[in-house]
Amino acid sequence: MKTLFNVEEVANMIREGRNLLLAGHESLLNRLPQGSWIGGTIPYFMSESGGIDTNEFIQVVQLPEFVISCRTLSYSSEELYKLPKDYDENGVSFIIIPAFSGVHKRFAQECASFPGLFDSPLLGWVSGFHLEEDSVKKPKVYNGVSGEVHTDRAVVLHAGLSKDKYGKVNILNLFKQGQGDVIRFKSTAFEVTECTVNGQERNFCEYIQEKKIDTQLPLVANYSGAMINVSVMALNENSKSVQLYAPVFSDVEYKFATPVENYEAEFEKVTRDSGLKRPTFACNCILNFLYANLKGKKTANIVGPMTFGEIAYMLLNQTMVYVTFEDR
Q1: What is the helix (H) or strand (E) element at residue 8, kind and residue range?
Q2: Looking at residue 49, what is its pLDDT?
């Protein structure tokens, strides 16, 4: 099934009144007419023909016919806590957040405390940019209804479903906690210096360097059987700090992940064993795209943007997030 379209094709879909989730380069999204859509900047995709990075096409998800209403809203970092109040009684909410913005940080660190956050399915992704571009790197999100473009607000499409359907948020994580040291952090943060390793205080940057840890592997926390990743962005030699793609939380036990030997084969196995058919919407992590060399490779029947972060209620890293619609 085709998922990548040129600007003219997507514009026609919008004019036909379709409800769309879009991902693509800003030069393409900027040319689209107003309508029932939300979008975010990213040039990396898992497509029907395999992994690709392109500034020529937009990846399109058309919401199914049993989506009977759509409301598109945007939220500043100060307004984010109100998001669950706008959930539909029977619906799914799709969110896109611009990377490295204030709203990104606020959502990542505080979303679990938003009243009612887990009362209805919430999923989406973090917009980004081409990693090799020389232009100003400012991730954007788009409110297609209003025509507004934001670098510092989250955009959410609240989709109402017919009574005979309900949505379910799912994650697929190939990584598991390794058998190594137990690591804890004193505070919730995207950048950390100090930690404890097996109860002993250490500088986290120095620990990684001394142990020669492969930073392509994420830190993994076990939340009652759910494996949640936090990926390493960079080691800062000057400040002896470590930048992360998502925050670590205080008093949570982390271990570095067990290596995945063959991502493509393992992903194929996990999706096959799960019986997963092609979901309506899915997104995966840019780090999986890069570290597993997924360009030109297919991952089962799963398509979607390769993003700067995945959202399944909370911010995730190096994880696939998807939604399925079930019969009541």
Answers
A1: helix 7-15
A2: 86
